[in-house]
Write a structure and sequence with these properties.
Layout lengths: L6 H17 L5 H99 L5 H15 L6 H17 L4 E9 L9 E9 L3 E6 L5 E5 L2 E4 L2 H14 L16 H21 L1
Antiparallel strand pairs: 1-2, 2-3, 3-4, 4-5
Helix pairs in contact: 2-3, 2-4, 3-4, 4-6
Length: about 280
């Protein structure tokens, strides 16, 4: 059986279908919008990532630049220090070179200088007060014998000579006392002697005290001059002070040298200092 649809009814159905189709939502529109949004977000993320990467790189470059500047400063300071060291070393090398150039002439002149030092030392001792004279002259005799020894270096000879000079310098001050033989005759080789206690005050006072402590004398102008009683008492105190048996005190004693002679004694000490300083 065939179904027949009238033209009017068909038109009505077609219109209704069109209306129905128009009332339905567009199925493909949301998908395209989502794709566009995703793409935009991806682009923004890429841009931000590029910006972030650029900032990190800039920070890294700044850090490297700072480190480089600090390294440059340290290197500059080191170079300045090294330059000063090089200059100092250069000056030392020049000084050593000059010393080596002078070594030859000094080596040739040293033997005669040593002989002159010993000769002057003997002259000074012989012109000084005669305290411990035998011991002092014996040391100089030993030095003169040493100068003729070829198996001894010049430096060792100089050390021994300076040692004697220092001993002589030590006599310039201080208080000293020792027991020794006193000649009772003006002739030193008479052989007549007696034991006494000698006292030395620097290079300006030379005395003796009898062992019983009752008599004493001071050497003036090459002769022993007796001391008065109170001076003998003071001399006994000096002996005790020299042996640390009494506290130091002012000693009122006549001196062996007058003002002119004391000036000569001071010159001896200056000569000693100059000889030692010049040798050094």
């Amino acid at each position: 059986m065939k179904c027949r649809i009238s033209t009017g009814r068909l038109a009505a159905m077609t219109g209704a279908l069109g209306v129905a189709l128009l009332s339905l939502p567009a199925i493909g529109a949301p998908s395209a919008l989502r794709d566009a949004t995703t793409e935009h977000q991806a682009t923004q993320q890429a841009i931000q990532s590029a910006i972030d990467d650029a900032d990190d790189e800039t920070k890294e470059l700044l850090i490297k630049l700072r480190d480089t500047e600090q390294s440059a400063k340290r290197l500059s300071t080191y170079n300045e220090s090294l330059e000063r060291q090089v200059d100092d070393q250069s000056q030392r090398i020049k000084a050593q070179t000059r010393a080596l150039e002078q070594a030859g002439s000094l080596k040739q002149a040293l033997p005669s200088e040593l002989e002159a030092m010993v000769s002057r030392l003997r002259a000074l001792v012989e012109a000084d007060l005669p305290f411990r004279r035998d011991d002092r002259l014996a040391r100089i005799d030993s030095l003169e014998h040493m100068l003729g020894q070829s198996d001894m270096s010049a430096s060792d000879k100089l050390k021994r000579i300076l040692s004697v000079w220092r001993a002589e310098i030590g006599y310039g001050d201080g208080l000293d006392s020792w027991r020794g033989a006193l000649s009772l005759d003006e002739k030193a080789d008479s052989g007549v002697t007696t034991q006494v206690q000698f006292v030395r005050i620097g290079r300006v006072g030379y005395y003796y005290l009898s062992l019983d402590g009752k008599r004493g004398a001071v050497l003036r102008e090459g002769a022993w001059q007796p001391l008065e009683h109170d001076q003998v008492v003071t001399l006994r105190h000096a002996v005790k002070m020299a042996h640390d048996q009494q506290a130091p005190e002012l000693l009122a004693l006549p001196l062996s040298l007058d003002a002119t002679q004391r000036g000569a004694s001071a010159a001896i000490d200056n000569d000693n200092d100059n000889a030692q300083g010049g040798a050094q």
